[in-house]
């Protein structure tokens, strides 16, 4: 204990104003509407306890959590401007091997610490600025074992989920905290999607449907709704995913309609898809390939997410997003089967690009087949569109009711 106390006393020095502070130029004045500026960084301690301090031009909010394999600590902060000394983060000290920082989304920056061994976050907080010192973000780490580390990762993961939608960005700050549902009518513009025998175009059918669905979800008053397109414009697949992630979506629903080529038999009914690298069957694989072709049609080279963002977020994804997507798919199935015909195997998965947001539960609904006479009749009927949109709105509400209740009890 004595060693520990002494060690912390030493670390406290890092926080104290040192003699050279008076000679350092003051942090640039920040007007209320500019981003905070990170101006300096310090590390102290050893492999038992390590302290990280970062100076900011003004106080910020933070959210810290841990990731395993490799061991990392992540701190999410509002969007800031990093004006740190060159090579900052390249080498570490004690429990911190190295650290990275940067913008990960509109309104959000992130610090990622690579750990030398498992560590727990003892403290993570921001100290108010004083007359003589800037605001300081302080992270205290203490060595722990793998089992304890993994246990904490599981708790952090749950808390991160409960925090959605992200409330730290300047755009959403102090405003609407209702969960955001992003509706994604497929195709648009020069990409018409699939086509019915009478010239009915998928892009029109799904936009009309998504608008009805939007109205219904908004009418509950419980959710915000954002559409990836509201008119006949082309939106690349990667942009659709980005729109959802940048806005802090809590749920992503892509709307499409399918068709079978002439002479390849008949198929009918709605299908609900989640993301998987291995398709459930050859038809699912064919469909994913067809839908993913949207970007080829418009000549957009889609490389997907920037690597750094994907790398950082992928762990979160693996843990929970997939299971939430599947939960929502089951809710959809339950509601839709009461009002519309479903495909003989209505729940499937395949590698749809538009479902690849690593941190947003995402589902793709194929409303039916324009190549099937009965389905097409439904797809263009007001009555069918309304009641099917009702059922999906119901499923969205059911999903959030169950999901938010679970998050609350888990946080206790
Ligand atoms: Zn489509």
Task: Name some characteristics of this structure.
412 residues; disordered N terminus; binds zinc ion; 9 helices; 6-stranded mixed sheet; 5-stranded mixed sheet; alpha/beta; 15 strands
Tell me what you see in this structure.
The chain is α/β, with parallel strands linked by helices and 412 residues long. The protein has helices spanning 2-15, 146-162, 202-219, 237-246, 282-292, 294-297, 307-336, 373-379, 382-411, and strands at 37-45, 49-56, 63-67, 72-78, 81-82, 96-105, 108-115, 119-127, 135-143, 180-185, 224-227, 251-258, 270-275, 342-350, 362-369. Strands 11-10-12-15-13-14 form a 6-stranded mixed β-sheet, with helices on both faces. Helix 2 crosses helix 9. The longest helix has 30 residues, at 307-336. It is elongated and about 75 Å long. Zinc ion binds next to loops.
**Bound small-molecule species:** zinc ion
Number of strands: 15
Structural class comes to alpha/beta
Mean pLDDT: 81
Percent range of helical residues: 25-40%
Percent in strands: 25-35%
Determine Rg (CA atoms, Å). Answer: 25 Å
* Largest pleated sheet: 6 strands, mixed
State the shape: elongated
Q: pLDDT below 50 for ≥5 consecutive residues: which ranges? A: 1-32, 161-174, 298-313
- Helical element count? 9
Instruction: Please trace the helix and strand order, writing H or E for each element.
Output: HEEEEEEEEEHEHEHEEHHHEEHH
| Measured distance between first and last alpha carbons | 30 Å
Q: How are strands sequenced across the largest beta sheet?
A: 11-10-12-15-13-14
């Amino acid at each position: 204990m004595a060693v520990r106390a002494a060690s912390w006393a030493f670390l406290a020095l890092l926080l104290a104003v040192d003699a050279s502070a008076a000679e350092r130029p003051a942090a640039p004045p920040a007007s209320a509407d500019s981003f905070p500026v990170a101006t300096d960084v310090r590390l102290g301690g050893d492999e038992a306890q390590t302290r990280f301090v970062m100076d900011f031009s003004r106080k910020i909010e933070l959210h810290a959590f841990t990731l395993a394999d490799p061991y990392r600590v992540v701190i999410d902060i509002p969007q800031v401007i990093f004006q740190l000394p060159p090579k900052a983060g390249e080498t570490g000290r004690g429990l911190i091997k190295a650290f990275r920082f940067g913008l990960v989304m509109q309104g959000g920056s992130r610090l990622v610490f690579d750990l030398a061994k498992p560590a727990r976050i003892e403290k993570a907080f921001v100290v108010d600025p004083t007359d003589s010192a800037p605001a300081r973000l302080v992270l205290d780490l203490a060595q722990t074992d793998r089992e304890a580390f993994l246990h904490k990762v599981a708790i952090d993961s749950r808390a991160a989920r409960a925090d959605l939608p992200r409330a730290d960005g300047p755009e959403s700050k102090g405003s609407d905290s209702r969960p955001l549902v992003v509706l994604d009518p497929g195709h648009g513009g020069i990409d018409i999607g699939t086509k019915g025998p009478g010239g009915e175009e998928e892009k029109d059918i799904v936009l009309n449907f998504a608008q009805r669905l939007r109205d219904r979800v908004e009418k509950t008053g419980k959710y915000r709704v954002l559409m990836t397109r509201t008119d006949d414009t082309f939106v690349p697949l990667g942009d659709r995913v980005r729109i959802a992630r940048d806005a802090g979506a809590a749920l992503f629903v892509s709307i499409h309609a399918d068709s079978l080529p002439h002479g390849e038999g008949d198929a009918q009914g709605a299908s609900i898809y989640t993301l998987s690298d291995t398709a459930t069957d050859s038809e699912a694989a064919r469909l994913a390939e067809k839908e993913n072709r949207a970007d080829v049609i418009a000549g957009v080279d889609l490389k997907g997410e920037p690597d750094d963002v994907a790398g950082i977020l992928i762990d979160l994804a693996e843990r929970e997003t997939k299971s939430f997507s599947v939960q929502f798919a089951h809710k959809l199935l339950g509601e839709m089967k009461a009002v519309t015909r479903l495909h003989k195997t209505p729940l499937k998965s395949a590698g749809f690009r538009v479902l690849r947001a690593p941190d947003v539960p995402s589902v793709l609904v194929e409303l039916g087949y324009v190549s099937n006479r009965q389905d097409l009749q439904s797809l263009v009927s007001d009555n069918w569109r309304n009641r099917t949109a009702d059922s999906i709105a119901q499923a969205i509400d059911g999903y959030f009711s169950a999901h938010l209740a679970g998050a609350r009890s888990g946080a206790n």
